[in-house]
Design a protein that fits this description.
Order of helices and strands: EHEEEEHEHEHHEHHEEEHEEEHE
Structural class: alpha+beta
Number of domains: 2
Number of strands: 15
Radius of gyration: 20 Å
Shape: elongated
Largest sheet: 13 strands, mixed
Distance between the termini: 27 Å
């Protein structure tokens, strides 16, 4: 196999990749920053067996630039020797471009445990170190009723209030209203809002096939919202979830998660990714407890860094 720069994405992958590493997402993320997409190329088959895209900013390389993860993806026939060869060739390119640091966020282990273990081994083998080690939580979708997964106290609350409010999936949601709820929710918790309503609207409508807008209302009042991002055929990512502080006693988030769980079951999705409950490896114990009470299963989400001399 050959190491090759395929930044035009002219060569098709031999595998079904995650949304955040798709050519459309790469262009959306770039925002004018240069990027390079590197592959291991099987010449006979004219396909990319492995691919990773790096964004360049000053003398540093990032994967991703603006999404939950980037890293490298590959097919089932790619082995550790192939990945090690890829990293050695990548190092040569990085040194030739005078890149000083590389930052890579990998996908949660639950997405593909075998590949995650291979990637982690190869990162460490090739001089990278783990810079962040986050705790990611997901629900494994099965024929089991969502209520069975809940902690007893959460189960009682869910059973009491699950039919009190109106849940919907909106094709053309009011982005401004949703953003206001997100902003209110983040400010109460002392967390920054990392997106503008303009960028959120652009993101939603640019990737509408992969985004679902889930809403929970009390009459005309929006009390809960979340976006579901179809990262792959099997994975739905819980994105920008928010609920109204005034309705806290009803736990709108639990109702939302239960409804989205049912959506996943109907849509043939096997992993409902609730996201991380840490920030730069620092645990948020309240969030950890909440996600555990939802029946969340923990897995690692690792970030890697390398300093090039």
């Amino acid at each position: 196999m050959l190491f090759k720069d395929d930044s035009t994405f002219s060569i098709q992958n031999s595998f079904k990749g995650f949304l955040f590493n798709s050519v459309e997402q790469i262009h959306f993320q770039s925002a004018g920053n240069p990027f390079y997409s590197f592959i291991l190329f099987e010449e006979k088959a004219s396909v990319a067996r492995l691919r990773m895209t790096l964004f360049i900013r000053n003398s540093e390389a990032y994967s991703p630039l603006r999404s939950p993860f980037g890293s490298l993806e590959f097919d089932e026939n790619t082995n550790i020797q192939d990945i090690n060869y890829f990293f050695k060739e990548l190092d040569k390119w990085l040194v030739s471009r005078k890149i000083e640091k590389v930052f890579i966020v990998s996908y949660p282990y639950c997405y593909n445990q075998k590949h995650s273990e291979m990637v982690t081994h190869c990162f460490l083998k090739n001089g990278y170190f783990i810079s962040e080690y986050d705790m990611n939580f997901h629900l494994q979708i099965s024929s089991d009723n969502f209520e069975k997964k809940l902690d007893p106290a959460a189960r009682r609350r869910y059973a009491k209030f699950k039919d009190k409010f109106q849940f919907s999936i909106e094709e053309s949601p009011d982005i401004e209203t949703i953003f206001s709820l997100i902003k209110e929710n983040r400010e109460i918790k002392g967390n920054p809002v990392s997106i503008t309503p303009e960028v959120l609207g652009n993101l939603y409508y640019s990737f509408k096939e992969n985004f679902k807008s889930f809403l929970l209302k009390d009459g005309e009042t929006l009390i809960g919202s979340a976006f579901g991002v179809r990262v792959s055929e099997n994975v739905l990512y819980y994105y920008l979830a928010a609920d109204s502080y005034g309705y806290k006693k009803y736990s709108p988030s639990t109702i939302m998660i239960g409804q989205i769980y049912n959506y996943c079951l109907q849509a043939g999705i096997s992993i409902f990714d609730l996201g991380i409950a840490t920030s730069k490896s620092v645990p948020n114990f309240g969030l950890i407890k909440f996600k555990q009470n939802m029946g969340g299963i923990v897995s690692l989400k690792l970030s890697f860094e390398k300093i090039l001399n």
